[in-house]
Amino acid sequence: MSIPVKHTAPGTSGTSGDPGGTRTGRMRSGWMRTGWMMTASGWSANQFSALLGAYRSELGLSESTVTGLFALYVVGLVPGLLIGGPLADRRGRRPVALTALAVNLLSTCLLMAGSATTAWLLPGRFLTGVSAGALLAAGSAWVKELSCPPHAPDGAPGAAARRPGLFVSAGFASGGLVAALIAQWLPHPMATAYVPHVILVALAWVVAYRAPETRRPAAREGRDARAAAGGDGAAVAAAGAADAAGTAVGAAADAAVDWSRFRRAVLPLAPWVFAAPAIGFATLPGLVDGGLTGWRTVFAGIATAVVPGCGLLVQPLARRLAARHRFANASAGLGAITVGLALAVPAAAAAQPALALVAAAVLGAGYGFALSFGLTEAAASAPPARLAMVTSLFWTAAYLGMFVPYALALVSRWWSMPVLLAAAAVLAALTCGGFAALGGRRNVPAALHRTAEPDRPRA
């Protein structure tokens, strides 16, 4: 897929009558155009999560089947991330992201068909994961790069790295709640609950289509240079040398990935990023809904909105913590996850919906801190030529946490759910202690303590 892009120098316009200020305004809006794609990705994930109870009651699916469909999303998401990231680095952010968004629309249509024939739920859920993974990989890099110079002259790199997570969280929060409300009160809930996402994806595709490409492959630049040189032998040779130089630069960029930083600071925390919210909106509602007859779907939708909503609310505090210490957000996130899991123990034991919502809110706050830290660290570990690939690896490790509800459902045959939640709280506390120790060690490389992309002060 090849989509032509018109390049114009910053501060200028494509026509003589277009003032530079108008051009700058369009540049600053680029990240907003692509951000809606990320919101659609988050929406597609959580619209299904809020309907888990409805699938059990309306379609008669078993608990293991519903939980397996929930986990199938991650099965598709991992290859989508691992393929979409490197592909976006080679081919560009724009074609990969726009194609993934189209597949995301197809997946929702298959889920709608699943209301009549449940067999369609399998490919629908799998393609939701594949498309969301490619969107997260290519879209995160696209939004981040459009939020930085030269596309956004006043952009702050630290905020740019966190911005994709904010858009995804907005989709998480709104998608589940809207789907649950529709399923509760409108007819044919297993089909009509997906209509808002169809509309959102169509609009997001149209809006993102006008956003500029930020990553032009070096090979294409070499071909363009040789084509421009025409029959001039010297010019062709110079173009070939430039192409070889671009390849060498790409190899140097590969070597510049800070894998040590990624392994130490990103990988240990990444699974908790989505393990916490998955427990909050997928596991807890099913443990406390015994007294919510007739309102189970609404309660699940509220929980689905509360978790990522709290993740959004803590972002201002996350920015202040990041300015104070490199590992502050990691410690805050894991600490909040520990407290949230501890609160979930009595909520599950006594089947208390109100306490479960409090636990979900605290887990959501932990998710917000952890996601902010993970995205910032992943971006700091990667050179521009490998940003999408490294970001896709972070999202892959993070989404492994989505398997936790399925694992808990399997292991609950031998241990009660409160015991399992207590064990998870202990594990989160140990991980938090490990980050506290890492942040306090004097022999940790300076790069791990350094804020690689600090926010520039605004005028």
Please give a structural write-up:
There is one protein chain. The protein is mostly helical and 459 residues long. It has a single domain, classed as MFS general substrate transporter like domains (Growth Hormone, Chain: A), CATH 1.20.1250. It has 21 helices and no strands. Helix 2 packs across helix 7, helix 7 packs antiparallel against helix 14 and helix 13 packs across helix 19. The longest helix is centred in the N-terminal third of the chain and has 29 residues. It is globular. The two termini are 41 Å apart. 52% of the residues are buried.
The fraction of residues assigned to DSSP E strands is under 5%
- Per CATH, the architecture is Up-down Bundle
Low-confidence stretches: 1-27, 234-254, 442-459
- What's the β-strand tally? 0
Quaternary state of the chains: single chain
Q: Structural class, from secondary structure content?
A: mainly alpha
Shape: globular
How many helix segments? Answer: 21
The CATH homologous superfamily is termed MFS general substrate transporter like domains
CATH class: Mainly Alpha
In whole angstroms, how far apart are the ends? 41 Å
Average pLDDT, rounded to a whole number, is: 76
Can you give the helix content as a percent range? over 70%
**Largest sheet entry:** none
Count of folded domains: 1
CATH topology: Growth Hormone, Chain: A
Radius of gyration: 23 Å
Subcellular location: Cell membrane
Transmembrane segments: 67-84, 96-120, 126-143, 164-185, 191-211, 269-288, 294-315, 327-348, 354-375, 387-408, 414-438
Protein name: MFS transporter
Membrane topology: Multi-pass membrane protein
